[in-house]
Design a protein that fits this description.
By secondary structure, the protein is mainly α. It contains eight helices and four strands; from the N terminus they run αααββαααααββ. Helix content is about 65%, strand content about 5%. The protein is flat, with a radius of gyration of 26 Å. The two termini are about 15 Å apart.
Length: about 260
């Protein structure tokens, strides 16, 4: 694309970053393999200076972070081209423009985003490593998820019959009800199982542990909550059929930035 688009400085910068990434990836993979082969502990998630291959493991971890930073730096180089691109807001056509629910849908959006943030906490902070953050994420995901489904079901009832159908509303009411009951069961049985647990390790359960049955019920209902949330999202297909989004217009400036 050069010289019509881009500059020598940006190109040299990308070549340099790519070279460093290549070297870092080789060093990371090699040191990771060596450290794993030399490790003489029981748990690979917990390293100390007393374990074999510790120094090589530290080198692998450092190069891994270097690669992350270099990748972010490489992405930032595209800001040069993006300054020349203008994206105009796409035209959205909705079959029922007479219905105004912007405030209600905005509140629902924020509830959904907070619930998604909770899911991110659950995924990134495992129970055995940071159980407080893990359970905080679960609380955000499932409690706000219950409020979200209730809110959206109420909106479905308010806009009917202009939007939606009795069948979809019935499904959403059923999902919301089962979701709420499952949340109560998951929370109650989870608290009971933790209080009855006769072990310090809350991440590993066996039938010999006290409260195992309550823990099992809590875990099953947690998966039921996840499946119900996915089923609830599928019901939006009905409304999305009423929305048409046209391709946005892109305009690239002819003025080269040097």
């Amino acid at each position: 694309m050069y010289p019509k688009l881009g500059s020598k400085k940006v190109n040299y910068c990308r070549i340099g970053i790519s070279g460093f990434c290549l070297v870092s990836s080789v060093v990371m993979l090699a040191s990771a393999g060596i450290s794993l082969a030399a490790f003489d502990g029981d748990d690979m998630t917990k390293w100390s200076s007393q374990h074999g291959g510790y120094k090589v493991h530290v080198l692998s971890a450092i190069t891994e972070w270097i690669m992350v930073i270099l990748t972010m730096a490489y992405i930032l180089t595209f800001s040069y081209e993006f300054r020349r691109i203008t994206i105009y807001e796409p035209e959205i056509e909705y079959m029922h423009e007479d219905i105004k629910l912007e405030r209600d849908t905005s509140n629902s959006l924020w509830l959904g985003l907070l619930a998604v943030f909770g899911v991110s906490l659950v995924a990134n902070f495992q129970e055995r490593i940071a159980w407080k953050l893990h359970f905080l994420g679960a609380a955000l995901a499932y409690i706000l998820g219950t409020i979200y489904t209730t809110f959206q079901t109420t909106l479905s009832i308010l806009v009917y019959p202009k939007i939606g159908s009795k069948f979809i509303i019935g499904i959403r009411i059923a999902i919301t009800f089962v979701y709420g009951v499952s949340l109560i069961k998951c929370t109650a049985f989870g608290i009971i199982s933790v209080k009855m647990l006769n072990s310090t390790n809350k991440a590993k359960w066996s039938p010999k542990n006290q409260g195992y049955t309550y823990h099992l019920v809590s875990a099953v209902t947690e998966w039921i909550l996840t499946i119900l949330a996915l089923l609830f999202f599928l019901t939006y297909v009905y409304e999305f059929k009423s929305v048409t989004i046209y391709e946005p217009i892109l305009e690239i400036s002819e003025d080269a930035v040097r």
